[in-house]
Amino acid sequence: MALVFRAVVQLVGISLSLLGWVLSCLTNYLPQWKNFNLDLNEMENWTMGLWQACVFQEEVGMQCKDFESFLGLPAELRISRVLMFLSNGLGLLGLLVSGFGLDCLRIGETQRDVKKRLLILGGILFWTAGVTALVPVSWVAHVTVQEFWDERIPEIVPRWEFGEALFIGWFAGFSLLLGGCLLNWAACGTQAPLASGHYAVAETQPHHLHLEMKTTHLKL
């Protein structure tokens, strides 16, 4: 029963981590990090992401334009690009490493210590990927709040508000953190199952011991 529970925890952890990694990749390229509507034209909606700015109009549809200069971007967007790329790379590496450490994978079944280390390393990579995904999302959200309540900006100037990508990024970061925690708990908090050969040895040892004791008793 404990082995089944351990395998279930591993599968839940790797599934959450996979979901978080996919959502973090999606967050990186979505242009909906910030948005605002013009009071004069409610049919026009502006959005901004890490790579491009878009405007949506009912008659024309969505039109996007990539940012031409990296150095011309605000500091939070420049660093967010680097951190999101780092999060995506660490998440992919965590999937590869932890995948080989799962109990359901028959590769390296006799090398339990190696599989345990791979699972722990994968969990740490997911933790790091989760943090590097939460930092840029939270930083952009913090700057957006500051600019929204900045009294120096005239009231007639439109204010940026939270976009859908920020909420997806928060969910992705926490999924990566939770998935990493489950994988590390499964590796450190529960005992790994023995290989099939060890099961056979463990089962035959009591039987041989019983036969030896019975033979000794008959001789006496």
TrEMBL record:
<protein>
    <recommendedName>
        <fullName>Claudin</fullName>
    </recommendedName>
</protein>
<comment type="similarity">
    <text>Belongs to the claudin family.</text>
</comment>
<dbReference type="GO" id="GO:0005886">
    <property type="term" value="C:plasma membrane"/>
</dbReference>
<feature type="transmembrane region" description="Helical">
    <location>
        <begin position="165"/>
        <end position="186"/>
    </location>
</feature>
<dbReference type="InterPro" id="IPR004031">
    <property type="entry name" value="PMP22/EMP/MP20/Claudin"/>
</dbReference>
<dbReference type="InterPro" id="IPR006187">
    <property type="entry name" value="Claudin"/>
</dbReference>
<feature type="transmembrane region" description="Helical">
    <location>
        <begin position="118"/>
        <end position="145"/>
    </location>
</feature>
<dbReference type="GO" id="GO:0005198">
    <property type="term" value="F:structural molecule activity"/>
</dbReference>
<dbReference type="InterPro" id="IPR017974">
    <property type="entry name" value="Claudin_CS"/>
</dbReference>
<feature type="transmembrane region" description="Helical">
    <location>
        <begin position="7"/>
        <end position="30"/>
    </location>
</feature>
<keyword id="KW-1133">Transmembrane helix</keyword>
<dbReference type="GO" id="GO:0005923">
    <property type="term" value="C:bicellular tight junction"/>
</dbReference>
<comment type="function">
    <text>Claudins function as major constituents of the tight junction complexes that regulate the permeability of epithelia.</text>
</comment>
<keyword id="KW-0965">Cell junction</keyword>
<keyword id="KW-0812">Transmembrane</keyword>
<feature type="transmembrane region" description="Helical">
    <location>
        <begin position="82"/>
        <end position="106"/>
    </location>
</feature>
<keyword id="KW-0796">Tight junction</keyword>
<keyword id="KW-0472">Membrane</keyword>
<keyword id="KW-1003">Cell membrane</keyword>
<dbReference type="Pfam" id="PF00822">
    <property type="entry name" value="PMP22_Claudin"/>
</dbReference>
